[in-house]
Amino acid sequence: MKREAFTIQEESNGTIHLWIHTSNESMNVLNQSVLQELDGLLQELAQLRKARILFIRSGKPNVFVSGANIREIEKIQSQLTAKSLVTEGKKVFDKLADLPFPTVAVIDGVCLGGGLELALACRYRIATDNLKTRLGLPEVQLGILPGLGGTQRLPRLIGLQAALPLILSGNPIDARKALRIHLVDAIYHPEYLKWGIETFRKQVLHAPQKILRKRRQSMAALLLEGNPLGRMLIYRTAKKTILTKTGTHYPAPLAALQAVRKGYRRSLQRGMAIESRYFSRLAVSPVSKHLIRLFFTGQQIKKETYSHNLADVQKIQKTAILGAGVMGGTIAWLFNNHSVPVILKDISWKAVAQGFQSCRRAYAYLLKKGKLTPAEVDMRMLRISGQTNYTGFKRCDLVLEAIPEDLRLKKTTLQELELYVAPETIIASNTSALSIDEMASVLRYPNRFLGMHFFNPVNRMPLVEIIPGKQTSASVLASAVQLVKDLGKTPIVVKDSPGFLVNRILLPYLNETTYLLAEGAKAERIDKIMRDFGMPMGPVELLDEIGLDTAGKVVHVFSIQPKTQMESNGLLERILTEKSFLGRKNGLGFYRYRKGKKTGFNEAINLFVREVQYHQHISPRYLPDKEIRERLLYRMVNEAMKCMEEQLVASETLLDLAFIYGTGFPASTGGPLQYTHDLGHGNLLDALQRYQQRFGERFLPCQTLQHERHAQPRYRHAERDGIKSKHTHTH
Q: Does the 315-493 domain belong in CATH 3.40.50.720?
């Protein structure tokens, strides 16, 4: 049999090294042909009389096996095909588990999905403390569950309490944690791996009981997991956690929990059959197809350079930020946390101090998670310099402006800034809605200027909108995109337009919320309806989070732009001028806040809304849940389709991913545009026209809908949107 993915190396002492090195891939990937080749090799190995121990190793740096072939999963259209696919894979892994001599997985780098399931089929596992070493089962993040034995072998190896977080969250762990929970039996430094393998070989052959004793669970864990009531408590707690985090919108974690629960106390083979049944159902689900499509879009973004010549990409080694507010301070934290030196400037030392406090708060989150120690935070904070002048700005590779959203103020500040930076310094604005070209008009060198819109809270939101102006050079654009990637964020390039992309789609949603409030819908009920749909917070809560003053300004900007003329009912403006409720920032908005936490509804705003209704002759009425949900969603997705008509972003999949990353729109739907396809353009058009007759031109359907009157619901693959990927492994 021709070997394309594996190489066998035999030693005279009976040690066999099985090297995996899949061709035409940057990482080792398990596809059907690789598994078939492994199947044949295992049959040969089982016949080797001289074999005493087998080490499975990777021939590629920083990776063991990165996962299964996601393209093969994406193409599955029937449960029968899905079940057949994983059943055949399980048979191969069963052969590995049944070899008549010890087997050891040597993990030096990424070990995810099917890669970890391969390692679990071995009798032992060792790993390196390489920073790239990550072990995990990320399948639930793609809408499926581990289908090659992960839900069955992992709990049997390390116990329910350690296994369930890995299976249900999809989040990987490093080698040290893997050792603590007994997922691996030993760890070694990469430089001493050869010595480590020899040391472990001797232990396995001469004292295997010592290794196995280390895997024993604590008495408390045995007592809890060894009786039905204890297991029931574990399962109920896990289910509660899932429902709190994802609701019922993502079926994979709940199905994975069921697969573990139903198979854990049965025979391994029975458990495997249960796992296959759940996998086959999930693999053909729309949610899985949507999540896989978004995964490939994210992979394509990582590869896009926006430059034909990588030499044009400027390495950003020192930065400065103008404006030490909450955004400026947390962006400074982001640079600092990724070892990019940063100057934080504002007009007063008090403002600079507030910026440092924002940095501290962001680091406090990492402290709470145990990612850093207090000493490490103190050392990092020393790398941020605060000042009230422009000293040192000439040595900066990039300066980011993050001052308040006032076009005149920004233009004045940018003009002044240009006097203090070097000619090659990139200048960026963190504006969320103002015109990049308008700001560039006051600069001597507009080719080095662009928008970099970070989303709040910066330490948690993955998206950064990159907005080049008409004169922005290709090298400046490419350098900004690369910087965002280096910061661990997802850059999406959008055209300069009011609100750019995410806020452009979001504002009609928030604007419609004010109409619903004025008509008598309760804030708490509006928020619950949209949280039930899958949004991370309701639109009223979001208005408070943004700040009613900021939201009011952005609505005003949109109302005077020809492309986005947005009529307002004046509710926000009147709240600001007559009541001064700002939202979370001053403790009073539609809700009340204390020390940044919501404590209840603000009854004073209820009374004020009634006054507005009285003066505007609005009769409060009961609004059905369906109407509230449709009015909010349909205005949003209609605006998303308008953005594609104006080609604000390169493809539909990029728009969907941007909106999911920028707002928390439920990824289970595939994003706003995928949602319209699943709903059906004809159905959406009918609904918008009904609402247009009742409420006016703000529900005017976009041109695409009017031209596609008879369009049918359809699913779009990533390739149809111009998104292609050679890499089909699980990340």
A: yes
> The tokens 């009786």 sit on which residue?
227
Write down the residue that tokens 């982001």 correspond to: 334
Q: Tell me what pLDDT residue 723 has.
A: 39
| Domain pair 315-493 / 502-529+536-623, same fold | no
At which residue do the structure tokens 């394509």 appear?
300
- Domain ranges across the chain: 6-284, 315-493, 502-529+536-623
Give CB contacts under 8 A, 24+ apart, made by 130-135: 130/62, 130/175, 130/190, 132/62, 132/63, 133/107, 133/108, 133/109, 133/174, 133/175, 134/109, 134/110, 134/172, 134/173, 134/174, 135/107, 135/111, 135/172, 135/173, 135/174, 135/175, 135/178, 135/183, 135/184
What are the backbone angles phi and psi of residue 694, rounded to the nearest 5°? Answer: -85, -40
pLDDT in tens, 341-380: 999 999 999 999 999 999 999 999 889 888 888 999 999 9
Assigned token pair, 616: 């505007």
The dihedral through the CA atoms of 686, 691, 693, 696 has a sign that is negative
Residue 333 pLDDT exceeds 70: yes
Give tens-digit pLDDT for 405-416.
889 999 999 999
pTM for the model: 0.90
- Reported CATH class of domain 6-284: alpha beta
CB 501 within 8 Å of CB 492: yes
Token pair belonging to 387: 């000042």
Decide if 615 is catalytic. Answer: no
In 3D, which of 472, 414, 416 has the Cα closest to residue 448? Answer: 472
In CATH terms, is domain 502-529+536-623 a member of 1.10.1040.50? yes
E-strand stretches of 595-640: 597-601
The 3-state secondary structure of 51-74, one letter per residue: CCEEEEEECCCCEEECEECHHHHH
Q: Answer whether 449's CB lies under 8 Å from 417's CB.
A: no
Residue ranges of E strands in 180-323: 186-188, 319-322
CA dihedral sign of residues 367, 372, 373, 374? negative
**Percent residues over pLDDT 70 in the chain:** 96
Hey, what amino acid is at 238? Answer: A
User: What DSSP character marks residue 347?
Assistant: S
Confidence of residue 721 (pLDDT cuts 50, 70, 90): very low
Which residue among 182, 249, 453, 677 is the active-site one? 453
Q: DSSP letters of 180-213? A: HTTSSSEEE-GGGHHHHHHHHHHHHHH-HHHHHH
- pLDDT at site 603: 84
